[in-house]
């Protein structure tokens, strides 16, 4: 069978994986999409349903197959793993999903060649590090979805509160994609103005700093609320993956807070964590060393230390 390019392989046909295939199909970014899952019947059923809508979208070959179909893929997106349950933190998933990754990453690496591996399964920072170690791939080609979605949630909520288009808000959430993540308020702007100044002058907030901190708490807890309401998050993470995929395939040089291996970042090394990174056809081309406030640097170190403690419990 002729290989079409761009070619994306997706491992995991659950809520996130199947929603991402749909989002990718409608985006027109990929000519060939392969869906891989241990439940072959589920993968085939999802592909059949998606193929019936191809005539309404872009010409795309979509099919279910095994790990051998990772061969010649431009990107392998990994969504497989145990789902986060209500009341369960992302880090609670560590042992179950590390065991799954010990099986699937060698199988992917055997065929993936020069592909970029994009990890989505939670806890994403830990599993990005696990994928890096198990695959033996260079660090620029192993990326976690990180806090791309968290940052989008933050921009949306600030935009709603301030009644301003979210695309005019420039800010990042960095650190662990989880309970120790942090917003970088010291670098945040709206329309070129410092965010607190804008909020005080134009949004008429009573206490801009307090209001912004309250918004961040809502962002950090958003996934828990969604899981409580509907059992899983899938739409917005799928759209986040389309953004990351587009930046890779089209070599956009987008700056996105993906999870990547850092070296001597605030004195921290050997951990995958979310920081603004330049994402290109090569993967993570570089990452930005932000000028953090003293408090932000303290929180970032705490976030990294939390991840490193978990990593020490893993047997490779």
Task: Describe what this molecule looks like in 3D.
By secondary structure, the protein is an alpha/beta fold. It is globular. It is 42% helix and 19% strand. Strand 12 and strand 13 form a beta hairpin. It has a domain at 7-144: 3-Layer(aba) Sandwich (Rossmann fold). Helix 3 packs across helix 4 and helix 5 (148-162) packs across helix 7 (208-220). It is built from ten helices and 14 strands.
Q: Mind sketching the topology for me?
A:
Layout: E1 7-11, H1 15-27, E2 32-36, H2 40-51, E3 61-64, E4 75-78, H3 94-112, E5 116-119, H4 124-135, E6 142-144, H5 148-162, E7 169-170, E8 173-174, E9 182-183, E10 189-190, E11 193-194, H6 195-201, H7 208-220, H8 222-230, H9 235-249, E12 254-262, E13 271-280, E14 283-287, H10 294-311
Parallel strand pairs: 1-2, 1-4, 2-3, 4-5, 5-6
Antiparallel strand pairs: 7-10, 8-9, 10-11, 12-13, 13-14
The biggest sheet amounts to:
6 strands, parallel
Please report which band the strand proportion falls in: under 5%, 5-15%, 15-25%, 25-35%, 35-45% or over 45%. 15-25%
CATH class of the domain at 7-144: Alpha Beta
Oligomeric assembly = single chain
Mean pLDDT: 94
CATH topology of the domain at 7-144: Rossmann fold
Shape by Cα distribution: globular
Order of helices and strands: EHEHEEHEHEHEEEEEHHHHEEEH
Question: Cα-atom Rg, whole angstroms?
Answer: 19 Å
Name the structural class: alpha/beta
Q: Give the CATH superfamily of the domain at 7-144.
A: NAD(P)-binding Rossmann-like Domain
Count of strand segments = 14
Instruction: Give unreliable regions as ranges.
Output: none
How much helix, percentage-wise, in residues? 40-55%
Number of helices: 10
Instruction: Give the second-level CATH assignment, the architecture of the domain at 7-144.
Output: 3-Layer(aba) Sandwich
Distance between the termini: 36 Å
Strand line-up of the largest beta sheet: 3-2-1-4-5-6
């Amino acid at each position: 069978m002729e290989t079409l390019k761009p070619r994306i392989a997706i491992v995991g046909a659950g809520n996130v994986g199947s929603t991402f295939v749909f989002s990718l199909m409608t985006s027109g970014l990929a000519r060939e999409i392969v869906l891989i899952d241990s439940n072959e019947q589920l993968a085939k059923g999802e592909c059949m349903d998606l193929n019936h809508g191809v005539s309404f979208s872009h010409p795309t070959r979509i099919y279910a197959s095994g790990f051998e179909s990772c061969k010649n893929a431009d990107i392998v997106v990994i969504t497989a793993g145990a789902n986060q349950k209500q009341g369960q933190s992302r880090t609670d998933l560590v042992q179950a999903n590390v065991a799954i990754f010990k099986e699937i990453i060698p199988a992917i690496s055997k065929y993936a060649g020069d592909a970029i591996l994009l990890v989505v399964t939670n806890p994403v920072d830990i599993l990005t590090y696990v994928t890096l170690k198990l695959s033996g791939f260079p660090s620029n080609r192993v990326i976690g979805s990180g806090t791309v979605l968290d940052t989008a949630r933050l921009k949306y909520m600030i935009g709603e509160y301030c009644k301003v288009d979210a695309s005019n808000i420039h800010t990042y959430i960095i650190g662990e994609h989880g309970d120790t993540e942090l917003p970088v308020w010291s670098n945040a702007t709206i329309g070129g103005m410092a965010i607190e100044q804008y909020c005080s002058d134009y949004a008429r907030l009573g206490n801009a700093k307090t209001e912004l901190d309250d918004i961040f708490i809502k962002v950090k807890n958003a996934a828990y609320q969604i899981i409580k309401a509907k059992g899983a998050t899938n739409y917005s993470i799928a759209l986040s993956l389309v953004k990351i995929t587009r930046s890779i395939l089209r070599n956009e040089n987008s700056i996105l807070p993906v999870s990547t291996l850092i070296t001597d970042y605030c004195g921290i090394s050997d951990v995958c964590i979310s920081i603004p990174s330049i994402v290109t056809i090569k993967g993570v081309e570089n990452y930005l060393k932000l000028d953090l406030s003293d408090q932000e640097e303290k929180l970032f170190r705490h976030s990294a230390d939390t991840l490193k403690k978990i990593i020490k419990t893993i047997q490779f």
